[in-house]
Amino acid sequence: MKNLSKGILLTIIVTITVLLSGCMYPGDEKAAKENPYEEQLQSVQKAVESYQNNNGGLLPIKTREQETDLYIKYPVEFSKLAPAYMEKIPSNAYEVGGIYQYVLTDVEENPTVKLVDLRVAERIRELNLRKQILGKIYFKDEVGEFVFEIDYEKMGYDEPIQIPSPYSDAQLPLVVGGDGNFYIDYSIDLGRIIENEKPDVKPGDDIRHLLSDHYPILPAYSLPYTVNEENQVIFLRKKK
Fold this sequence. Notes:
Blueprint: H1 2-22, H2 27-34, H3 38-54, E1 100-105, E2 112-117, H4 118-134, E3 139-144, E4 147-150, H5 152-155, E5 162-164, E6 171-177, E7 182-184, H6 187-197, H7 209-212, E8 225-227, E9 233-235
Helix pairs in contact: 1-4
């Protein structure tokens, strides 16, 4: 009976995932909700700056816990911006059915509007549901210090979950950290940038800024990365 209940719950998860990932929007409407348009980013950026200037330096952001991932820590509060500082909320924003969460980075020095792709969060949520049903996480080899490859077969999947990269044509894997949380592995994209662009990075630096500084979409739900002495991308070790 217990195994039957697990089977039913797994079926529900798969069904929900298909519905969520289907993005059942026709043509142009789907594109409007999925594309990270530069003009929409600029519109929100101008609205944020106007709000800040008119409110003594305060930013139109939601409150999140201190421990929240840096890349999702400062979501834009559109109720403070529309319609006072902008005509309407962008069509690709989560608040109106889009796939992006608008967030702020560098809030102390230079508040900048960026995007988080929430489809990634849905896949991680799916894995967390599966973990709750199974009561544990199955993992394989260690791919970094306290970072492991997921054993999808034992987790009940026919094939590994991969996430389309927002930075390239790559399909990105997921990993599980020693904290029991799931993360997107951006090693492929970071390695490509280091090989092709030869940025000045040093061992011990968190190099995710190579993505966050140059693209509208942030590497959210990820672990920090650095390079080793051979300039190869590795997971950044946690400080003792």
